Amino acid sequence: MTDQQANVTGLRREWVAALIFMALGGALLIAVVVVAILSPPKMIAPAPARNVAVQRQLAIALCNAGLASAQGFALVPAYTKLASDLVQVGGVKGRYTCFAQTDAARYQITFDLMCRDLNKPKCVNLYSVMQDGGGTIYQRR
Q: Which pLDDT tens digit goes with each residue over 11-64?
């Protein structure tokens, strides 16, 4: 056997190994693509409408309690209504801010929630009442 024949058989073995490696790599690539296509996407389910409605009702109840407290101290007129059903959570734990309005003015009512029973008058502790464009009406020290 000559040197050239030995090189040809060695090259033939290397080509067979390369073809096997390419076939296995191609099969692996196809498997990855199939798995990616067939697997369902991971999505976070949106909050059910029931939870959104409950959160909205809680926000309205919380803001109504804050508004009732401000009206109880005669800081805002008795005919003041909530401007929206949104409540802002303050930087202090248990502090909330709601917005109220009359035909003539808008108010920002900030209060601390002292308990979970909103029907108790001492559950809501007013922190501040501010009128848009009119400054601070009340500020707890």
A: 888 999 999 999 999 999 999 999 888 887 776 666 677 787 888 898 899 999
Residues 12 and 58 placed together within one structural domain of the fold = no
Domain residue limits at 4: 1-43
* Same domain, yes or no: 38 and 97: no
Q: Which long-range contacts (CB under 8 A, 24 or more apart) does 72-81 make?
A: 72/121, 73/126, 73/138, 75/126, 75/129, 75/137, 75/138, 76/100, 76/102, 76/107, 76/109, 76/129, 76/137, 77/102, 80/107
135-139 and 106-113 beta bridge pairing: unpaired
Q: What is the mean pLDDT of the chain?
A: 88
Residue 46: what pLDDT? 66
How many domains are contained in the chain? 2
Please say whether the dihedral angle defined by the alpha carbons of residues 118, 121, 126 and 131, taken in this order, is positive or negative.
positive
Q: Same domain for 94 and 118?
A: yes
Q: What is the pTM of this model?
A: 0.63
